[in-house]
């Protein structure tokens, strides 16, 4: 996990894939760069560092929330916003993303204090695919899931088609349309987080 050092809204960024050559990890890199340039304090995590079993009510009741879910829940709760770069699997949400979201949604207490980590967080969604649609079909479903767990999902989103060419391996963006789309999404996320901070 890497923590941003700049002042500004605290925004968590992660990719919904742990594949070493993931194009969604590239999108997360690009989002991290864009958010940092907008003045956000960015924390980037990899879901590979938070290995969780499949959600199981018997496991939760008998052993409690897994440590990895609690650890990531603490990270989520410490941020104002979240950017998720998620792949599309069979026109839907990848099991890794859904399982992660579901475990964290079951948390009701952190370190002795009542807490629902997702509640009230501003969330921006992105997807990258080598197909023409850019993973957008999965974003409709992921939007509904994130709203169901209490997040404020911003209208703007970023679906990147032909991602292997559009996204550089170092997080740079070669395609102007993609750069503009991601820029609008990241700016909206930062602006929403700032307005919320001023209103509380």
From TrEMBL:
Protein species of origin: Hoeflea prorocentri
Domain called NADPH-dependent FMN reductase-like: residue spans: 9-163
Gene Ontology MF terms: FMN binding; oxidoreductase activity
A Pfam family this chain is assigned to: FMN_red
Domain of life: Bacteria
Protein name in UniProt: NAD(P)H-dependent oxidoreductase
GO CC, alphabetical: cytosol
Gene3D superfamilies xref list: 3.40.50.360
């Amino acid at each position: 996990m890497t923590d941003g050092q700049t002042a500004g809204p605290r925004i968590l960024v992660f990719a919904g894939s742990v594949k070493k050559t993931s194009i969604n990890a590239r999108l997360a890199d690009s989002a991290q760069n864009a958010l940092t340039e907008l003045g956000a304090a960015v924390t980037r995590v990899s879901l590979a560092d938070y290995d969780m079993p499949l959600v199981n009510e018997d496991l939760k009741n008998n052993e409690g929330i897994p440590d990895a879910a609690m650890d990531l829940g603490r990270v989520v709760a410490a941020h104002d916003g979240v950017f998720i770069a998620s792949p599309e699997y069979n026109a839907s949400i990848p099991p890794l993303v859904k399982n992660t979201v579901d475990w964290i949604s079951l948390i009701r207490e952190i370190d002795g204090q009542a807490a629902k980590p997702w509640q009230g967080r501003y969330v921006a969604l992105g997807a990258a695919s080598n197909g023409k649609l850019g993973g957008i079909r999965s974003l409709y479903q992921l939007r509904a899931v994130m709203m169901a767990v209490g997040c404020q999902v911003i209208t703007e989103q970023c679906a990147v088609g032909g991602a292997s060419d559009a996204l550089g391996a170092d997080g740079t963006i070669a395609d102007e349309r993609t750069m503009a789309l991601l820029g609008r999404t990241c700016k909206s996320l930062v602006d929403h987080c700032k307005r919320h901070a001023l209103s509380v």
